[in-house]
Amino acid sequence: MTTASEAPVVAPAVASSVPRLERVFSRISAVLAVVLGVQAFPGYLAQAPSLHPLWSYGFSISIGIGVSAFVVAVLLQKAVRLTALVTAGLFLVSLVTWPLALVDHAALAGERPAPWLWITVGAVLAVLAAPPVAAAVYVVLLPPVFAVARIATGGGIDVVQGALLDAVYLLVVDVVVLVLVLVLRESAASVDTAQARALERYEGAVRQHAREVERSRVDALVHDEVLATLLAASRAHTEEDRALAVSMARSAISELTAAETSDPDEASAVPLAELAERLRDVAATLTEPVSVTATDIEGVELPLTTAEAMYSAAVQALVNSQQHAGRHVPRWLTVTGTDGGALVEVGDRGRGFDLRGIPPERLGVRVSIIERVAAAGGRAELDSSPERGTVVKLRWLP
Predict the structure, then answer these.
(1) In 3D, which of 341, 348, 265, 278 has the Cα closest to residue 311?
(2) What stretches of the chain adopt beta strand conformation (E)?
(3) 3-class DSSP state for residue 168?
(4) Cα 62 to Cα 48: distance, rounded to the nearest angstrom
(5) Which of 140, 147, 145 is nearest to 110 (CA)?
(6) pTM confidence score
(7) To the nearest 5 percent, what fractions of the chain are helix, strand and coil?
(8) Is 273 in contact with 298 (CB distance < 8 Å)?
(9) What per-residue confidence (pLDDT) applies to 346?
């Protein structure tokens, strides 16, 4: 007879797409900042004698430090947004103050301001780090500021026309960058939403399959027990035959009563070894490596609802670790049989967080892990502190 543990297993959940997309954006931005910075350097040297020394040295050093800090932040994947915002702000201030720093207008008449090659870099950094509305304001503001800075050098109507054409070109490029990034972010968020819904549908399909299995078991029971009892009763011509028919009838009634009062989800059992294998498959799909170990799992079985709850909670814990713990930190997943029960532990040595600082409206840990396991008869424990990592323990005892 088919068991609920034979329910089909769909592809496991994978890490969120949004953080991976943000990492790609930050790396591209870092490369772009370095390349265009190198290209802008000769022009800066050529214009430096015509600018106030305080501006020249102050902003060149500040922007250089900002770009360097951003590149380091991208490599370490820490404080990326903060360094991007600071660098974008420094660039905007330097472009606004450039006309004020001119001491020799005639020497730079009609020249583009030295920082102009970094305009796209500033826009990309703002789009990467700022909220969409603030990024849009920044992107729209940069080209007019550039045009004003160029016109301020003087040079007549030809310079004005050239500055306006440059501003329109820069505006088009920066708006394209803004729209592209926003669309890709929205697409990545949609993918994550679809994955979450697929996991929910998977859980529902498993439960539906369990109910179908139970219905098939009852149908088989009716066929094997009830029909056989009726046939035996119809052929009972002796006292021994009648006694056998009565015994078969009592047995059939007992089986039917047990089937009627049992919960198909609870009656279905899942081997702990199967749960460990499914979690091992999930860990293999993640972008950051996870050490997986399984101990004393043979011979241990869990109710279907408990197994599915612990699987979903463990997947959520793994995804949370991928998103928030940081890169290149130790991560582990252990599945252990304990006195006929089970312990699943997901841990890392990453950033961690303050449990007391979780706002009440943040439902991820409470609903997806703690309440989910508790509702299935288990218990979830979470231990975390800043810079010391996070450990999630999921327990079930029969």
Answers:
(1) 278
(2) 269-271, 291-295, 301-303, 331-338, 341-348, 379-385, 389-396
(3) helix
(4) 15
(5) 147
(6) 0.48
(7) 70, 10, 20
(8) yes
(9) 94
